């Protein structure tokens, strides 16, 4: 399945204190961040599903701030080309804090990341045990969960990467069972 990434177009708010982010095309929009979350330039902001294919939406490289539009009650909502998806307000202090927080958590941590966007499950069925739990020791190739994409379940395994220890100990499960995840999102922290 090929996936596109769209960088959103920003239109300055009338008060010049933020931006409206616009839909790049028609589709079904799912928003990742929630209201009052700091949004940094280039970060993933959600997905747009077009004809059954899910595409990642990114903030422009020069736009950042605090999300001021709350999520709708729906998981996905239909949008038209150029429709306002959400608004962000300029807030330099929050951006600096968020960037520092992301840098701190990214450096020195070994994490297994989602290979693509989808719904992540920690167990094969709701009745069965977790694939991995905090404190488990795992090796390269061990299944840590399932990623559902378009009703197809794919195993997510510990990859053979230089920055990941093997064997490794599961420190923390970073997403809830059944959570929607973005490509590259951290799923499991290792030590």
What can you see in these coordinates?
By secondary structure, the protein is mainly beta. It folds into two domains: 5-106, Beta Barrel (OB fold (Dihydrolipoamide Acetyltransferase, E2P)); 110-190, RNA polymerase II/Efflux pump adaptor protein, barrel-sandwich hybrid domain (OB fold (Dihydrolipoamide Acetyltransferase, E2P), Beta Barrel). The protein has one helix and 18 strands. It has one helix at residues 92-106, and strands spanning 5-7, 9-12, 18-22, 27-31, 38-39, 44-50, 53-58, 65-67, 77-79, 84-89, 110-113, 118-121, 137-138, 143-149, 152-157, 168-173, 179-181, 186-190. The strands form four sheets. It has a five-stranded mixed beta sheet, with no helix packed on it. Strands 2-3-10-8-5 form a five-stranded antiparallel beta sheet, with helices on one face. Strands 11-18-16-13 form a four-stranded antiparallel beta sheet, with no helix packed on it. Residues 93-108 have low confidence and may be disordered.
Cα-atom Rg, whole angstroms? 18 Å
**Could you give the distance between the termini?**
32 Å
The top level CATH class name of the largest domain: Mainly Beta
Q: Largest sheet, order of strands side by side?
A: 1-7-6-4-9
Number of domains: 2
In short:
By secondary structure, this protein is mainly β. The chain has 1 helix and 18 strands.
Explain the layout of strands and helices.
Elements: E1 5-7, E2 9-12, E3 18-22, E4 27-31, E5 38-39, E6 44-50, E7 53-58, E8 65-67, E9 77-79, E10 84-89, H1 92-106, E11 110-113, E12 118-121, E13 137-138, E14 143-149, E15 152-157, E16 168-173, E17 179-181, E18 186-190
Parallel strand pairs: 1-7
Antiparallel strand pairs: 2-3, 3-10, 4-6, 4-9, 5-8, 6-7, 8-10, 11-18, 12-14, 12-17, 13-16, 14-15, 16-18
């Amino acid at each position: 399945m090929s996936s596109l990434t769209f960088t959103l177009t920003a239109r300055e708010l009338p008060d010049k204190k933020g931006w409206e982010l616009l839909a790049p095309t028609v589709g079904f929009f799912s928003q990742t961040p929630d209201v009052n979350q700091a949004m940094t330039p280039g970060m993933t902001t959600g997905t747009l599903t077009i004809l059954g294919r899910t595409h990642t939406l990114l903030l422009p490289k020069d736009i950042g701030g605090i999300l001021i539009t709350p999520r709708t009650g729906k998981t996905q909502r239909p949008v038209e080309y150029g429709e306002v998806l959400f608004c962000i307000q300029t807030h330099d202090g929050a951006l600096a804090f968020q960037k520092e927080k992301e840098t701190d958590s990214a450096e020195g941590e070994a994490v297994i990341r989602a290979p693509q966007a989808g719904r992540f499950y920690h167990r094969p069925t709701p009745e069965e045990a977790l694939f991995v739990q905090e404190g488990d020791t795992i090796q390269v190739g061990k299944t840590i969960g399932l990623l559902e994409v378009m009703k197809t379940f794919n195993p997510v395994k510990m990859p053979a990467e230089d920055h990941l220890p093997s064997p490794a100990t599961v420190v923390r499960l970073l997403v809830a069972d059944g959570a929607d995840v973005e490509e590259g999102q951290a799923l499991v922290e290792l030590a």
